[in-house]
From TrEMBL, chain A:
Organism lineage string: Bacteria, Bacillati, Actinomycetota, Actinomycetes, Kitasatosporales
Pfam families, per the entry: ABC2_membrane_2 (PF12679)
Keywords carried by this UniProt record: Membrane, Transmembrane, Transmembrane helix
Protein name (Swiss-Prot/TrEMBL): ABC-2 type transport system permease protein
Transmembrane residue ranges: 20-41, 53-74, 95-122, 128-151, 158-180, 206-226
Cellular component GO terms held in the UniProt record: plasma membrane
A molecular function GO annotation: ABC-type transporter activity
Automatic annotation (TrEMBL), chain B:
Organism: Streptomyces sviceus (strain ATCC 29083 / DSM 924 / JCM 4929 / NBRC 13980 / NCIMB 11184 / NRRL 5439 / UC 5370)
Source taxon at top rank: Bacteria
Name of the protein in question: Integral membrane protein
Length: 239, 302
């Protein structure tokens, strides 16, 4: 199910040349902001929770997820070089699964790791906040990567749709309409984080059983469907 | 006995171009400014998907509608309830809808320049009479105009609605004028930032993500820091932090000079002195974007 060559090529496409620097700029900004906040405010659990929840989990993880998830397959389909990959004796689901693993790994390294570091800088993991948000970032990395990888195989405008989902649906509608929060990767991962932290600083609108089931279902379904899409991929010309 | 005559090489250049009778072009040559204008109008139409496939019309048109619908609803409410004033200031509207504006610039800036880089059509443009500066100016002006159309259209809806609801004419016209100045600056600033980022990468998808990351992360970071500074009682730091993201720059500028209510925490905008710094920062950023684009295309055109 896992093909090292495909993985190597995908890593190179995602992190090659200067792209790793750009991906690295976001986590670096988060850490710089945490240092500033720690210097201004001192260790404060509520501030740490707000910053990690508002900036790291709500903005940074989805954006990194979009870049890694759609970037793992989108550009190849876009410029047509995916035919060289598809013409190899590899199962299409294997290609998708390998690319998913790579996308998850990249998202985790560039979002969960800085979240953990920022959490320790902000309040030294008081009330398990740093660990809770890191777990949330890890869990949501998996779901986001699967979801956006699927988008990459379905549409040429995957990045835009991914961002519309992450920013408009989760952030804007999520804050206005309570029902939208039930269908949001962010809230599902917060439910897991709530379980880890235990306190009432990290809260979610979704119960843990529902959240876990939905996370697993979305990840599996998206991966399976992406494999199916790749099996019957038609290469369209440039619009 | 055959004597080998050495082949006499006549002096002088042997090569010649035979005239095989093609007609030369003797129609009018429309020149550099015409080419620039064409590039401008094509890019502007392209920013709304006109002259392109149906699929690429969907997103810009959708975002345009999303921009205008809330304005229409506000007008309808104001007319129905016979309100004395519109529910939202002209200057505030763009700040509220910033997510839509960011999405628009993120999707259209790479569409405008990244494809030229990817399909290596930039050298073809420069084999025509236009120069680097013409290309940059045409693309910049086109995207800024497209953004201005996007941000000014809802203001026109609000203004027309306000006049139909017989609100105070002088008051509304002043607010409308201030709103237009503010969105014009916003269009120039956002278009510049979007184009600079998009012109670095030939990958359209990556460009979109990079532009949106710069817009939303900087806003998220700045507003978080402002909220913390405000809560810590150091409200004097709030305007200075606002200098570091495009949205708060416009917000601060218009609350200092264009009579807007600031969306900063504590609703305290920059004072006039600080406002001058905001104006300088906005104009400086626009000039810097133009300069960076010129520098980029000096290289990439060859």
């Amino acid at each position: 199910m896992y093909d090292p060559t495909v993985a190597r090529l995908t890593y190179r496409a995602l992190l090659g040349r200067r792209r790793a620097l750009i991906l690295g700029a976001l986590p670096l900004l988060l850490i710089v902001i945490s240092v500033i906040v720690r210097a201004l405010v001192g260790a404060d659990d509520q501030t740490a929770s707000d910053l990690l929840g508002g900036l790291a989990l709500a903005t940074m993880v989805p954006i990194i997820g979009v870049i890694a998830g759609t970037g793992a397959i989108g550009p190849e389909i876009d410029d047509g070089s995916v035919v060289y990959l598809l013409s190899k004796p590899l199962k299409r689901p294997t290609i998708i699964f390998t690319k998913l693993i790579v996308a998850i790994a990249v998202t985790m390294v560039f979002s969960a790791l800085p979240t953990l570091i920022a959490g320790f800088i902000l309040n030294g993991n008081g009330q398990q906040i740093a660990v809770a948000y890191t777990v949330a970032a890890l869990v949501s990395s998996i779901a986001y990567a699967a979801l956006f990888l699927l988008l990459g195989t379905v549409s040429r405008h995957a990045v835009v749709f991914g961002l519309v989902y992450a920013l408009v649906w989760e952030a804007l509608f999520g804050s206005l309409v309570a029902g939208a929060r039930t269908l949001s990767v962010q809230q599902w991962s917060l439910a897991v984080a709530h379980k880890v932290a235990g306190g009432d600083l990290v809260t979610s609108d979704v119960g843990l059983p529902t959240a876990t089931v939905l996370l697993v279902v979305v990840t599996v379904l998206a991966t399976w469907y992406a494999g199916q899409k790749l099996r019957s991929l038609t290469l369209a010309g440039e619009e | 006995m055959a004597v080998e005559h050495p082949v006499t090489v006549p002096s002088g250049d042997q090569t010649r171009i035979h005239n095989i009778g093609y007609r030369t072009y003797d129609g009018p040559r429309l020149g550099r400014s015409y080419a620039t204008r064409s590039l401008y109008s094509q890019s502007l139409r392209g920013a709304y998907g006109l002259g392109r496939s149906v699929k690429s019309k969907v997103l810009p048109m959708l975002l345009f509608v999303v921009m205008c619908v809330p304005a229409a609803i506000m007008v309808a409410v104001a007319v129905a309830t016979k309100a004395k004033d519109l529910p939202v200031d002209y200057t505030r509207y763009a700040i509220i809808m910033q997510a839509v504006i960011s999405l628009y610039v993120a999707s259209q800036a790479p569409q405008s320049v990244s494809r030229d880089l990817r399909f290596k059509t930039v050298p073809l443009y420069f084999s025509r009479p236009i120069e680097t500066a013409d290309y940059v100016r045409a693309k910049y002006a086109a995207l800024a105009s497209a953004m201005f159309i996007l941000t000014a259209a809802p203001l026109i809806v609000l203004y027309v609605g306000a006049l139909l609801a017989k609100l105070d004419f002088a008051d509304q016209t002043k607010g409308f004028g201030q709103g237009l100045v503010s969105v014009a600056l916003l269009s120039l600033l956002f278009a510049g930032i979007g184009l600079v980022i998009a012109s670095v990468t030939p990958r359209r998808g990556f460009g979109i993500a990079a532009v949106i990351a710069v817009m939303t992360i900087s806003y998220g970071a700045v507003s978080t820091l402002q909220a913390i500074a405000d809560a810590q009682g150091s409200s004097s730091a709030v305007p200075w932090i606002g200098l570091f993201s495009p949205v708060t720059l416009i917000d601060g500028l218009q609350s200092a000079f264009l009579g807007a209510n600031s969306a900063f925490p504590g609703a305290v905008g920059p004072s006039n002195g600080e406002g001058v710094v905001y104006v300088l920062a906005v104009l400086g950023l626009i000039a810097a974007c133009y300069g960076l684009l010129m520098r980029r295309y000096k290289k990439v055109g060859l």
